[in-house]
Request: fold
Amino acid sequence: MIWATVAEVRDYLQDDDVIPTSTQDEAVQRMIDRVSRTLGSKVIRWPVLDSETDRASDEEQRKHIIAAIAETVKARYEAVALEQALGGAGNVEVIAGGGSITAGKLSVSGGSRSGSGAKIGKSADRVPIEAYEAMQDADLIGGSSPSW
Reply:
């Protein structure tokens, strides 16, 4: 199943300015493929596909699927931008672990690896709630009875 194209994701996110314009379409496609695999593992009802396009045949459902992909891509790009703003993966791990970094005469304190800190950088690879909501709107997840 084709979840979304680069053009559809860029169009959905055009007002958010989250994907740098310098980012090549191949890099965005790799992110879409990665996100598609993540979201695909959560689907409990697959859509009816158009045999010619290998996409959801219902146009409204397809819009929700694109939204789920785009929201997850957005979250991942925001996590990368935050990591870069904080000075790289090493700093992110210290801050996520509850530590602090002071510039000037460099000082680093705290930062346990217990995982009790904020979810930022690579640890923010979780699916955002907006993507789950879009998947539910597309009728890929959810229902009247618990699935556990």
